[in-house]
Write a structure and sequence with these properties.
The chain has 176 residues and is of the alpha+beta class. Helices cover 12% and strands 30% of the residues. A 6-stranded antiparallel β-sheet has the order 2-3-9-6-11-5, with helices on one face. It has a 3-stranded antiparallel β-sheet with strand order 8-7-10, with no helix packed on it. Strands 1-4 form a two-stranded antiparallel sheet.
Length: 176
């Protein structure tokens, strides 16, 4: 059912700590533009759930992206755009605004800020997490110091959520 486009090197983005959003000290955010082919005759969210799940990324959800700056300090997150399009600011207020559309995937290492700035009415996002870590929602300056401690402790996943055990994430998120 799920069909991936040819494996491509993802776009990589690194963001500095801006005092509110720590971002990740070592690992870049990865974006796979048009990574997933979404046939018209299937539930596009189910396609992402199958791909992420087959690569060990679970606890998936279907929704949108919050309209406020936030990050997760104890877990990594993958976002698959199942329908529609949106402008998302990644990395906090000093980060980068990207237009994402159906078929795109963004992989956010723990600490990466994200915020929906605008979206089409039909936006549908599938999110998922690696099999370890604890979901949290950080958005205040008071959470920053603790996040600096917990973010580097979140281990690298065993598999890329899109391309599995030999996916680009494993090299991009090396322990170095």
């Amino acid at each position: 059912m799920a069909q991936l486009t040819d494996k491509q090197e993802p776009l990589t983005f690194r963001f500095a700590d801006d005092g509110l959003v720590p971002n990740h000290p070592r690992w870049p955010m990865l974006v796979y533009p048009g990574a997933v082919i979404l046939p018209d005759d299937v539930d596009p969210a189910a396609v992402f759930e199958d791909i992420f799940g087959s690569n060990g990324w679970g606890d998936s959800w279907r929704n949108g992206i919050y309209g406020f700056v936030h990050y997760h300090s104890r877990i990594h997150e993958v976002l698959g755009i199942a329908r529609g399009a949106a402008e998302i600011r990644f990395g906090g207020d000093k980060g980068k605004v990207l237009e994402v559309k159906a078929g795109d995937v963004a992989v956010l290492p723990a600490g990466t800020g994200h915020q929906r700035l605008s979206a089409s009415a039909d936006l549908l996002v599938v999110g998922a997490y690696p099999p370890f870590g604890t979901y949290d929602l950080c958005r205040s300056a008071e959470q920053h110091a603790e996040a600096l401690r917990t973010i580097p402790q979140v281990p690298r996943p065993d598999k890329d959520p899109v391309h599995g055990g030999d996916g680009p994430l494993l090299k991009a998120w090396s322990e170095g």
